[in-house]
Write a structure and sequence with these properties.
- Helices cover about 85% and strands about 0% of the residues.
- It has about 325 residues and is an all-alpha fold.
- The chain has a domain at about 15-130 and about 210-315.
């Protein structure tokens, strides 16, 4: 019998990291398959627009830095076209990543509810019903961040009047808040979806979950983020290697750049590889956040333990009635 992965339990630091990778390794293929099955147009729209975004953005960079190019000199860089490509990319990115994150949440919720079985209808029902509420919750979070940034700016300006010493004091006082915001954002959407509360309630509930466990949560978030960043460097390696080699060629023969037409097809292609890799790693990030969420919730509520006791009592009562 296949063992069901247990989310509702307290885990230590090592166990959270190990469990995140274990669930990711076992379910990444299925998650991607479900998302692709119901989001083909969105996925293709994102990748195609991202390709052209990099293609024309590279051309615009040449223009801004004064690179001589016959297409640029003849007006081949069309700001209106570039703006349209950027707009399409932003729209598809927004739709894609909201639905992608919700698909992961829906997958995990279905997995927990059905004790290891995945019902695609449940996954997509969550994606479709929570899309706009999720967007609203995101805007609320952005609004709070803007307010914090404004207040933080005023805070720094006040201390800056004291000179470098005042700035140093401001940084030391403000840095823990930055850590808190990062940790809070990593947990907020998990609370919103899995506790099925309103966006405003999710804010206060997230803060309550972080009580007594903030530094533990920050350490998990920080280390998992570093690991994902290092893994992401693997997917960025082709761009870095290509750019390095091209830089050496241009250093030896600056006239080579005049042979360029519009954008760089290789940069655009390697950027797609990077985007695909970052998308896959996003699954690991979300899974890690969910496991951290259940660890904190179990610490404060013992929900998983109580459910186990209820199931055990129900089983014992059933055995007694049969006897």
């Amino acid at each position: 019998m296949k063992k069901v992965f247990e989310f509702k339990k307290q885990r230590n630091f090592d166990d959270i990291i190990e469990s995140s990778f274990r669930f990711f390794r076992l379910h990444i293929k299925k998650i991607i398959q479900i998302f692709w099955k119901y989001n083909k147009i969105t996925t293709l729209g994102l990748f195609i627009s991202y390709f052209f975004y990099n293609y024309y953005a590279f051309q615009l960079t040449n223009f801004l830095f004064g690179v001589k190019n016959k297409n640029i000199e003849s007006g081949a860089v069309d700001s209106l076209w570039l703006g349209l490509v950027n707009l399409v990319f932003v729209v598809f990115s927004f739709i894609f990543f909201v639905r992608f994150v919700l698909t992961i949440f829906g997958y995990i919720k279905s997995y927990i509810k059905n004790e290891g079985q995945i019902k695609e209808k449940e996954v997509m029902d969550l994606v479709n019903t929570k899309f706009w509420p999720f967007v609203g919750a995101s805007f609320l979070l952005v609004l709070l961040l803007i307010i914090i940034i404004v207040l933080g700016t005023l805070f720094f300006l006040g201390f800056s009047k004291m000179g470098s010493f005042g700035v140093a004091i401001a940084v030391l006082l403000f840095l823990p808040l930055v850590f808190y915001i990062i940790t809070f954002m990593n947990l907020y959407f998990q609370v919103y979806i899995f506790d099925e509360v309103s966006a405003s309630e999710a804010i206060s509930l997230t803060m309550s979950y972080l009580k007594d466990k903030f530094w533990f949560s920050f350490l998990v978030t920080f280390v998992l983020g570093i690991i994902i960043w290092l893994l992401g460097m693997v997917f960025n390696a082709p761009i870095l290697i290509y750019s390095f080699i091209k830089g050496l060629m241009l250093a030896k023969d600056p006239d080579v750049i005049n042979q360029m037409t519009q954008g760089d097809l290789f940069i655009s292609f390697f950027s797609l590889i990077s985007l695909a890799g970052e998308t896959v790693l996003k699954v690991l990030s979300v899974i890690g956040g969910v496991i951290l969420y259940y660890t904190l919730k179990e610490y404060h509520t013992n929900e998983g333990l109580l459910e186990k006791l209820e199931r055990l009592n129900a089983k014992n009562n059933n055995d007694e009635s049969q006897a």
